[in-house]
UniProtKB/TrEMBL annotation:
It comes from the Bacteria. InterPro entries: Pectin_lyas_fold, Pectin_lyase_fold/virulence. This is Pectate lyase superfamily protein domain-containing protein.
């Protein structure tokens, strides 16, 4: 549309050079747009510009929109008309990748469109190959490198080659900001082989895997092997950390959890400066996430369902149990001297009992203190996890002949063995974490590191538990950046549900903050059961959240060894933890090792709150502080100051031999200006600044 005179007149008037002009009614003499040169210069003000733009919009806005729309329509029509079938000058277009691969593209065409995705002719490129061996490169979308341009599709039986090709292009094209790999949306994305995403940390090159949400982007593992991973990002030599790798809005799942041992979903060595958001790890008969030397990792809204692995228990098929007082008898020979715990299925719940003494193959005596025992007959039972032994200097893990603990397919699994490794301080116990590298027999395997090198026990251990985690956060042995200490993990809304074995294993880390829920398996069996929510070696930080459901194995819900830092369970809730301890602590020989339970709401536990803790440390290193509420019995809520001193709604209570803030104190050794408990009388005492010892009137209960 041609410009009209009225608008040009407005432009000349509002944007004239001088104030005066011919016809201004004030004697001005000069044609617009210059105006009268004898008058002052006219400034440009916002009012004039506003009036001018308003006039433009009123007269031309519709015309401009029409022109743009017409141009777009014309280009679309031209592209359509210039499809491969008829045009010698247009961009060839194909509805499917298969059609494009079979087509001979004319030499003039440097661009093609396949299923809405754009490709550029490029010798040696890997995104697409058409007839005659002509190769085409992907063209980045606004989101990143789209794996569909390399052939990824829900219709494919194997998308691993397409995703791997996209990663290789990303590696070659990395800038300082890295690249995003866009995964297909709409359903199952099947992968039949391991995907390698390793890039060394120097120079840094971030890689981000992005999906459209875990309901519509399901990366599916369709192969087996405990020593494999769906996505591996780890230096095979175990020397260099990986460049950061991120994951967003993806579901990881297996095609099947029967027929073989599932690979881990993610195996990352030296994982730092990365994040995971909106990730769901689905059913697996193996570890779901394995990573080492974690630093500055952020996990938000990550869920782990039905993962991990439990080594098979002793079979109780055909055996029933009768319980009278502390005497437990079996209908057939089943007990042996290694048995430590047994779970008896009472209606409507199940209860775990500690075996205090082995009497015969058909009888044991249960421990009474701290346990709620219910008599009954014809009851079903489930033993503790299998027990193994190791000899210092050997990498052989041994049950006894006749045990059915291991199978050949276990090679590659993570294995956890308590007390078999030397701690930070000589004499301290530490969990030995390794991989199974050789199957020897149903009762024996050999263990080693990620590269297959043997890892020997530092000390003899006899009849200890054995576990495998759903989440494996480990510190590799050896120096260098690959084996650096772990720090700065923030995990918000972490959800571990119905896990088998150990929920999460972690070691040698500080500045960890985890919030969420860890829920054991509610239907334990010989072949699938929850051992403990967490096994930790020397972790500093906190966990805020809950433990749900009895673990059915193990001494307590959480097992912590070799502590040289402070770890706090803050505002903890524990549900259905019948006859369960909350924390089991090995001897902490470092003076700075503590575990603090800072407030707990415990359901269905009728014992003394002190019995929630299992430790032999003297003085105590697991401190029960804050408000303690024991649901399911008549105990009043308490404000705890350690193990034995607390305030309820009536008064302060101090128990002889139990200590304020966990410290047994001889009154004669109190420093000036401090409180303590006289361990003989149980009285609360105070030594003033002059050194005079004073007894504070209390009621001893």
């Amino acid at each position: 549309m041609e410009a009209t005179l009225p608008f040009l007149e407005d432009v000349n008037l509002f944007l004239r050079d001088h104030m005066g002009y011919t016809g201004d009614g004030q004697g001005g003499n000069g044609a617009l747009p210059v105006g009268d040169r004898s008058t002052s210069r006219k400034p440009i003000n916002t009012r004039d510009l506003r009036a001018l733009f308003a006039a433009f919009a009123e007269e031309y806005e519709g015309a401009v929109d029409d022109a743009i729309e017409a141009a777009v329509d014309a280009q679309a029509a031209a592209d359509l008309a210039a499809g491969y079938a008829g045009s010698a000058t247009g961009t060839p277009q194909f509805a499917s990748r298969a059609t494009a691969e079979a087509a001979t593209i004319p030499a003039f065409a440097n661009w093609i469109i396949v299923g809405g995705l754009v490709y550029r002719r490029s010798p040696g490129a890997t995104a697409l190959t058409t007839a005659g061996g002509v190769t085409w490169a992907h063209v980045d979308t606004t989101e990143g490198i789209d794996t569909r341009q390399f052939g990824a599709s829900m219709l494919n039986d194997d998308n691993s080659p397409a995703i791997q090709a996209a990663i290789e292009v990303a590696k070659a094209a990395f800038g300082a900001s890295g690249a995003a790999i866009i995964l297909p949306a709409g359903g199952f994305v099947m992968c039949r082989s391991q995907i390698d995403a390793y890039r060394p940390n120097s120079p840094r090159s971030d890689l981000i895997f992005k999906g459209a949400g875990h309901l519509i982007c399901r990366l599916t593992c369709g192969f087996y092997g405990a020593d494999l991973a769906l996505i591996r990002c780890r230096d095979p030599l175990g020397v260099t950390r990986s460049s950061p790798i991120w994951f967003e809005n993806v579901r990881f799942q297996h095609e099947s959890t029967t027929g073989g041992v599932n690979p881990v979903f993610l195996d990352i060595g030296g994982w730092g400066n990365s994040s995971m958001y909106g990730i769901l790890f689905s059913n697996s008969n193996n570890t779901q996430l394995r990573a080492s030397s974690i630093q500055n990792l952020r996990m938000t809204r990550c869920e782990f369902w039905y993962g991990g692995y439990a080594f098979p228990k002793k079979s109780t098929s055909g055996i029933t149990f009768s319980l009278s007082g502390t005497t437990l008898t079996a209908s057939g020979a089943i007990f042996d001297s290694r048995d430590r715990y047994i779970t008896i299925f009472h209606s409507p719940d199940r209860r775990r009992y500690r075996i205090a003494a082995y009497v015969s193959p058909t009888e044991v005596t249960l421990e009474a203190a701290g346990y709620r025992i219910t008599s009954g007959t014809g009851l079903n039972g489930l033993f503790d996890c299998p027990r193994v032994s190791m000899v210092a200097g050997s990498n052989l893990v041994n049950g006894i002949v006749g045990d059915e603990i291991f199978v050949a397919g276990d090679v590659g699994r993570t294995i956890l063995i308590p007390r078999a490794r030397e701690g930070n301080v000589a004499g301290a116990f530490r969990i030995l974490r390794a991989r199974i590298i050789e199957y020897v027999a149903p009762h024996a395997v050999r263990i080693g590191d990620e590269q297959g090198n043997p890892i020997n026990a530092d000390r003899d251990v006899t009849h200890v538990r054995v576990g495998c985690p759903a989440i494996d956060f480990y510190q590799p042995r050896g120096g260098g950046s690959y084996g650096s200490l772990q720090s700065d993990l923030t995990a918000d809304h972490l959800h571990i549900e119905h896990f088998a074995g150990v929920g999460i294993f972690a070691e040698t880390a500080d500045s960890w903050r985890i919030s969420g829920k860890i829920h054991g398996d509610t239907n334990p069996s010989r072949l699938r059961y929850s051992l403990n929510t967490m096994w930790f070696n020397n972790i500093g930080g906190e966990y805020v959240g809950g433990f749900d459901s009895t673990s059915a194995s193990g001494e307590a819900l959480a097992y912590i060894a070799d502590q040289a830092k402070a770890f706090t369970y803050r505002n903890l809730w524990a549900r259905n933890a019948i006859n369960e301890r909350i924390v089991q602590a090995e001897d902490f020989l470092s003076p700075s090792g503590y575990v603090i339970i800072d407030g707990i709401d415990c359901q269905n536990y009728a014992g003394d709150p002190r019995d929630l803790i299992s430790e032999t440390n003297v003085p105590f290193r697991v401190l029960l502080l804050g408000f303690v509420n024991m649901q399911g019995d008549s105990q009043a809520g308490e404000l705890r100051f350690g193990h034995g001193s607390y305030i309820d709604h009536r008064h302060l209570k101090v128990q002889p031999g139990r200590v304020l803030l966990g410290q047994a104190v001889d009154a004669g050794s109190l420093p000036n200006g401090s409180f303590g408990i006289n361990v003989v009388s149980g009285n609360l005492v105070f030594r003033d600044m002059a050194g005079v010892l004073r007894t504070i009137n209390t009621t001893v209960v």
